[in-house]
Amino acid sequence: MSVSNVTVYMPSVLTLIGISGLESVQGWIGIPFCAMFLIAVIGNATLLIVIRSERGLHEPMYIFLGMLAATDIALASSIVPKMLGIFWFNMPEIYFDSCLLQMWLIHTLQGIESGILLAMALDRFVAICHPLRHATIFTHQLISQIGITVILRAAILVAPCLVLIKCRFQFYHTTVISHSYCEHMAIVKLAAANIRINKIYGLFVAFTIGGFDLIFITLSYIQIFTTVFHLPQKEARFKAFNTCIAHICVFLQFYLLAFFSFFTHRFGSHIPPYIHILFSSIYLLVPPFLNPLVYGVKTKQIRIHVIKMFCS
């Protein structure tokens, strides 16, 4: 698809070309993406139903897991339907304001997911390191406050990206986005203006949310492992460690994919564009796809209730 050299003033419609360089096979690529999306929605919806319906799961760990499941459904739903429209039905156009909304949703939901992972790590830290105080610290009021804070933090920090694009960028080199969804830098690079401040602010948001959360999650698990290894009974050590396995798996896959996507995007200028687009798309879709599978397999209480729900 050719790119026009004419400068456009405040375009009303943008064009997403999908996976640049792999346009001829996008229809086939859409099949595993669709399968992951369906598993993500069904799996996370099942978790939400089980956690809501079973009173024995109305504990902080499972409430945070319910928040994570809801976030994963919203994140997958914000990108995959439009992506499949591009891959399968040749529907690449998207309204400019809708594109900005999708960008805001994607990055806000990523920030919310990171905050929930931090809350889950702190919950496990208190439950294992200070078990007698866990019930008095993690009350339902505190859980609600944490949820609201996590949502507001991400939404408020990401919102200036919209303002900067909407107010500072009025002329655009092209209306064609070389991506499969409205990613922040992919939109910013369209502008016929200095984009330095947008790049800097994007990095600021990434490090403020991701960096802060990663540091405190790591510190929490270091303290957890130190406490677990000093427990006198082997069974107690195994039980304490086993409650953290699912969280560790989810934490690792989220941040490892995030770092890999970030560094290939920022420093992999020699890597073909379709590699960048594929990995950034996989980074957004794999956590919602894997999270319900990990918790369904590794968490006994959830596994029992899921089996009971489908077998009754």
Summarize this entry quickly:
Helices cover 76% and strands 4% of the residues. The chain has 312 residues and is mainly alpha-helical.
Structure description:
It is built from ten helices and five strands. With 312 residues, it is mainly alpha-helical. The model has no long low-confidence stretch (mean pLDDT 87).
Elements, N to C (H/E): EEHHEHHHEEHHHHH
Gyration radius from CA atoms, angstroms: 21 Å
Helix content: over 70%
Unreliable sequence segments: none
Write the layout of secondary structure elements.
Blueprint: E1 8-9, E2 13-16, H1 26-53, H2 60-89, E3 93-95, H3 96-129, H4 134-137, H5 140-168, E4 171-172, E5 176-177, H6 184-188, H7 196-229, H8 234-267, H9 273-298, H10 300-311
Parallel strand pairs: 2-5
Antiparallel strand pairs: 1-4, 2-3
Describe this protein with a few key phrases.
about 300 residues, mainly alpha, three-stranded mixed sheet, two-stranded antiparallel sheet, globular
